[in-house]
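Box S2. Input/output pair 1.
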Amino acid sequence: MSLTPAQAVRDLSEAFAARDLNAALACFAPGDDVGYAGSEKAETAVGRAELTALLGEVFLRTEAYAWEAHDVTVHTFGDRAYVFAEAEGAARPDDGADENFPYRVSGLVEQVEGRWLWRHCQGSEPSS
């Protein structure tokens, strides 16, 4: 259960690591007013149908992704919050060694029935 807005970052990472589409979709607020932007140019989705299609494609890749936040900033406004997390990302190929890289996760989360869920999430790989 997401007791703090920062938990939304961990919950989505766990869903990505497991390549669990239902768990990932459950990390987003209900309804169609949701969005996601990944680090690749074509990784954008607006609405539940696009989000489902995009994450479904990502989870079919031959590697899983995850991230561990080490520095999280949260600005809370009632039942909504802006979350910005510096993280260590990992690509875990099905048949190879993990590749680690800097990663950032940010976006708007909303408290729904005691759990912080993404309204819009953006992940990016900062260049050095």
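Box S3. Input/output pair 2.
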Amino acid sequence: MITTLGLELPTDPRWVNIAEMQLEQILVDHAYCEQKAASACISMIVHFPEKEKLVEVMTPVVAEEWGHFRMVLKELHKRGYKLGRARKDEYVNRLQEIVKKKGDRDEVFLDRLLVCALIEARSCERFKLLSLHIADESLRTFYHELMVSEAGHYRNFIELAEEYLPAEKVRARWKELLAAEAHIMKTLDLRGDRMH
């Protein structure tokens, strides 16, 4: 089965229906996902400031992700919902368990880029499902626009990896991480109150 941006395991099609029944919760979780994405890009710049191309590419992505956070806040307020507290993101936490955090600086850098790419790919896939199947017309348009943006961010991370490291090394590690992500997805509960 072909999935969005090469993911090995598609989202269970029941997820959209479950998410739609918990719209406030999914929007709150989505807002925090956008906030964390902006923070992750800032962190990359702080940890690898010597990589000029990275700084050049990530700086506008930070602004876009923060802009998405503001857009989701607007959707929340429009519906009379409140932001509430951040939730534990089991999907991202599980991904963080498999990445290299110490040792060879290039390998740590590669893993950070590719995990960001994976998260963007999964977000893009979920946004696509929402844009096609959610009943609310305005949210369909909203998620279609975000899907296009997330796909661009995914490409940013992959292209940056190939800018600094051999393409074959990037592809080999990407394949490993795709398999690990598919395993994580199989073991997570299907939750409509989480974007991932």
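Caption for Box S3: The mean pLDDT is 92. The chain has seven helices and no strands.
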